[in-house]
Amino acid sequence: TNLEAGIKWDLSDDQSLTLAAFEIEQDLLQRINNVIENREAEIQGIEAQYLGRISDKWTVSAGYTYLTGETAGGARPGELPKSSFSIWNNYQLTEKLGLGLGAIHQGESTPKGGASRGTVPSFTRVDAAAYYQLSENLRLQLNIENLLDEEYYPHSYSSHQFTVGAPINAVVSIKGTF
To answer: What global pTM score does this model have?
Structure first.
């Protein structure tokens, strides 16, 4: 069950701010020692997002989320960071060539399985992009994820099993519109 209320404020023709508060009630089905258990959780949060054109060539998107919550047993749900933040900048160098730079930050959280079993550390990952408009309908793009080659753990499966985030990597793509 999800309950959400929000407001959007257009600061100008090219800039807006969105604020939302929400509450989620969910039933978590988990397999523990080959037994499926129902673990209810209630999560509350607020989100804020800014979208704006700073100049004719520069646009920014930034967002912040703050979360609280607890399971029926009173523990904080696993993988629920208190806060996360993201920012993305696009800068149009020429009519055809543009660059992007951004960062994602996720605060520390508890692993799945309970707060008494360690911490999933916070992380900040920096990403970049470059794109070139080959024609009206065709764009060549390079995306680089984890530009600073940060070691990070985006997910946990228990107190001793974590997913390691990908090291620096790049993807080249061609996007066509019809």
So the answer is: 0.84
